[in-house]
Design brief:
10 helices; single chain; disordered N terminus; Arc Repressor Mutant, subunit A; mainly alpha; globular
Length: 234
Amino acid sequence: MRTIPAQPTLVERVVETIISEIVDGDLPSNTRLIQDELAQAYGVSRHPVQQALLLLKTRGLVREAPGRGLIVPPLDVDFARNLYEIRAMLDGLAARMAAEHGAKRAAKEGPAFLTAGRTAIASGVLNAQIEADMKFHGFLCELSGNPLIDQTTEPHWPYLRRIMGEVLRGDLKMPDNIWDEHAGILDAVIAGDGDAAERLSRVHIHNAAEVFVHRLQLRHSEAEGQRRQRRIER
């Protein structure tokens, strides 16, 4: 018998909608999240919105703010840095094991992921670019043969998506650079070169982390400068 894939529940659809709006910048940092307003905007009752916000709170994408209820919190630079350090290790391991166990399948199926990534860049749709990125790395995790790698990374993807969204918006060069690096990793996997695949994967994540963390620090510094200027003007 075939397993019938489960359809996303209403709560899951609301969760995905809120995450997408945060990633796109439609719900920027410090936005107050009012259940009634979200329910009206999404055409649903308050209950699935309430449940969705609770789930997002556990994932660190929303938090309580004194006197304001739930808000979209500013990105935490230190958390982002720590997250990318862990991801570099896991992605490096996935790439090495993919080269050792899945070279033939990588050669057959891998190029389609690169094509999808380039197509997403051409579309200009931010969420499509991030989804293509996630699928590429998910493919390497699948080839590794170790499901725990993907299971360990999966809870952090919503936050990673937000980091990527914050930085990729308005950047014309970085998306192409990312997929050039993906192509290099895939070539190493297809060649069965575990050492090169792991090294390139770690460098790829390190490069992304450097850019992401640097830009987040700049944005925080700019915001702090604006707050100081407003205090002076008062």
